[in-house]
Design a protein that fits this description.
This protein starts with a strand and ends in a 16-residue tail after the last strand. The protein has strands spanning 2-8, 14-19, 29-34, 39-48. Strands 2-1-4-3 form a 4-stranded antiparallel sheet, with no helix packed on it. The chain has no helices and 4 strands. It has 64 residues and is mostly beta strands.
Length: 64
């Protein structure tokens, strides 16, 4: 699991999300529920919250 830093494009609230795949492969944007807006909003993927050696840099992490 990798911890990612996300930011709501509407209210600007930042949060961390643990995911088992590379979120940057989704184009740098994901739709999640924002607690402040109380609605599903677009969030920008700001980067990985892990140390550099643990962050995925290239390739798909999803097994078909």
């Amino acid at each position: 699991m990798t911890r990612w830093i996300l930011k709501c494009t509407v209210c600007g609230e930042e949060r961390e999300l643990e995911a088992g795949f590379n979120l940057t492969l989704l184009g740098g944007k994901v739709y999640l529920y924002c607690r402040r807006c109380r609605a599903n909003r677009e969030h920008l993927v700001l980067g990985c919250a892990e140390p550099d050696d643990l962050c995925p840099t290239v390739g798909a992490d999803v097994i078909d």
